[in-house]
Amino acid sequence: CAKAFEKECIFKGRTVNLDGHLISYFGDLKTDAAPLNGIVAAMLEAAPHTRAMRDASRGGLATALSELAAASTTGFVFDEETVPVNEAARNACALLGLDPLHVANEGTFIAIVPPEEAEAALAALRAHPLGQNAVRIGQVTDTHPGKVIMRTILGAQRIVTPLSGDLLPRIC
């Protein structure tokens, strides 16, 4: 079980993307599959007290954060506008009725980093070729234990839930 995090920062690497057969319909989409070992090693060197990491492949960002929150005694709060979403992926999600937060993201991960190591972690991520779009999206909170809250671009708060149903593997 994960233990409680203490006001750490949440980072997300790369942008939300879609790939596979959708590429033929949305020409700007490119695969997001990538090896994470190099970028993770660089970040851990800069932020050795990183509390947790999780890939955002099956179930997307929403599921990854929800699973971390459920396994700990803390919650997470993030801003919708800080999550980078590729424009072609956003358009495809809108057309297909998908939530970009639940779309599988191969080659993407989230990290829970102590505040005092946040800037160093972000600099290390951005210095890596795969981390140029890395951003700080939110923070750990004890206000909503076990829950993930997204502050929307309209100023509302939305409870983010994991993807429901079977998490099917992707063919990259």
Span of the ends, CA to CA? 31 Å
What's the mean pLDDT score? Answer: 81
Q: Briefly, what CATH class?
A: Alpha Beta
Corresponding CATH architecture: Alpha-Beta Complex
Task: Spell out the CATH superfamily.
Answer: PurM-like C-terminal domain
Give the overall form: globular
> How many E strands?
7
Low-pLDDT sequence parts: 1-5, 18-25
What this model shows, in words?
- The chain has 172 residues and is α+β, with helices and mostly antiparallel strands.
- It has one domain (9-160): PurM-like C-terminal domain (Phosphoribosyl-aminoimidazole Synthetase, Chain A, domain 2).
- The chain is 24% helix and 19% strand.
- It is built from four helices and seven strands.
- It has helices at residues 37-46, 60-70, 87-96, 118-127, and strands spanning 9-12, 52-55, 75-79, 109-113, 135-141, 148-151, 157-160.
- Strands 2-4-1-5-3-6-7 form a seven-stranded mixed beta sheet, sandwiched between helices.
- Helix 1 packs antiparallel against helix 4 (118-127).
- It starts with 8 loop residues before the first strand and ends in a 12-residue tail after the last strand.
- Residues 1-5 and 18-25 have low confidence and may be disordered.
Key descriptive features of the protein:
single chain; about 170 residues; alpha+beta; Phosphoribosyl-aminoimidazole Synthetase, Chain A, domain 2; seven-stranded mixed β-sheet
Task: Map the helices and strands.
Layout: E1 9-12, H1 37-46, E2 52-55, H2 60-70, E3 75-79, H3 87-96, E4 109-113, H4 118-127, E5 135-141, E6 148-151, E7 157-160
Parallel strand pairs: 3-6
Antiparallel strand pairs: 1-4, 1-5, 2-4, 3-5, 6-7
